[in-house]
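During the reporting period the student researcher (J.K.) took over the structure-prediction task from the postdoctoral fellow and processed the backlog of single-chain submissions. One of the processed entries is reproduced below for the supervisory committee.
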Amino acid sequence: MSNERESRGFTLIELLIVVVIVGILAAIAIPKFSSVREKAYYSAMKSDLKNLGNKQELYYQNAYSYTTVQASLAFETSSGVTVASAATTSGWSASATHTATGTSEGCVVFFGTATTPTVGSTTAASPGAVTCTR
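J.K. obtained the following structure tokens:
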């Protein structure tokens, strides 16, 4: 028999090094993931406002006015998105917020002679242009 002890498994130092490396990777990945998620929320709001614009124009072709009744437009929002709209006979406006971003952040758009909408400190820049807080 040999007096040398056979070493099997990992030493404490090796395990600590692995834990530190995993921690560093997590510290890099988590903020990137949050940023990507936030971009997805804004993309959903922009998409909903553009879809609402298309539906409003189709409605106008038939009724010669705009509407705030989303059921009349056959319009459904994305998950987590809330759209508020106002309409006149010659224009409409809408704002969109997402439950994950809060009510002070979101996107706005208007067409025609509608009242310019705001979300937080953001106001729609020009007719037909979707403007967001970020």
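The committee noted the following: Strands lie at 81-88, 91-98, 102-112, 118-119, 122-123, 131-132.
J.K. will present the remaining backlog at the next meeting.
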